[in-house]
Design brief:
Blueprint lengths: L15 H13 L3 H16 L8 E3 L13 H10 L4 E8 L4 E6 L6 E3 L5 E3 L12 E5 L2 E2 L5 E2 L5 H7 L6 E5 L20 E3 L4 E3 L7
Parallel strand pairs: 1-2, 1-6, 6-9, 9-10
Antiparallel strand pairs: 2-3, 4-5, 7-8, 10-11
Helix pairs in contact: 2-3
């Protein structure tokens, strides 16, 4: 994966909880016009990565009420230009905090769960160790690839169950911060971050 040398931003170090509160507010305050512009840039930057030898890509369905980055135009790009790639989406179990992974077909039926998250109702289950790349929604990440999500641990459990060779690409509106103070041994760092400003490489793994 060839990434740009965009400057990593420097700031005060905080805990995950402090960063979560700050960046949830920052993201909620992004205007509709600015969000649309950054979404377009994120999707363009994702297209700059190499997808030729990839078989399974785990993507997320953006949660509108959380103002998450909209990667659906990039999903359309994969469907049109990389027809060999199988897209994977998840259904969350809020009791176990586990994620079940399904192939996302053109005719897959999706519905909102009681938390307002769009999920598949049924389909072909796929084991997480078959997935080559996962696009991870998040609030902010530090310069070592440690991420701040919503604090429920869904992605940490999911990524821990994936192959050691999986490429973990974070998606955020914000540039990396210097350091998260309270990273735990169970936290799974990212390989790369894609924002509207550029692509940041944390671990030297090629998409090949």
């Amino acid at each position: 994966m060839h990434c740009s040398n965009t400057q990593i931003c420097v700031g005060l170090n905080m805990t995950k909880s402090e960063y979560r509160k700050l960046y949830k507010e920052k993201r909620s305050n992004i205007s509709g016009c600015e969000k649309k512009r950054m979404d377009q840039n994120i999707c363009t930057n994702l297209q700059m990565l190499s997808w030729d030898a990839v078989n399974y890509v785990h993507v997320y369905l953006p949660i509108e009420k959380f103002n998450e980055p909209d990667i659906l135009p990039f999903v359309d790009y994969l469907r049109e230009c990389h027809k060999n790639i199988k897209l994977v989406i998840s259904k969350s179990n809020f009791e176990s905090h586990a994620m079940e992974n399904y192939i996302w077909e053109d005719d897959s039926v999706l519905q909102l769960n009681k938390w307002g998250i769009l999920e598949p109702t049924q389909g072909e289950l796929i084991h997480s160790n078959l997935i080559d790349i996962v696009l991870v929604p998040l609030l902010v990440v530090d310069e070592k690839g440690n991420r701040v999500g919503y604090g429920k641990g869904f992605y940490d459990r999911f990524l821990s169950d994936c192959s050691a060779q999986i490429k973990k690409i974070g998606i955020s509106y914000f540039e990396p911060v210097t350091e998260i103070d309270d990273v735990g041994e169970w936290d799974v760092p990212l390989d790369c971050l894609v924002t509207g400003y550029g692509i940041y490489n944390f671990i030297d793994k090629e998409i090949e």
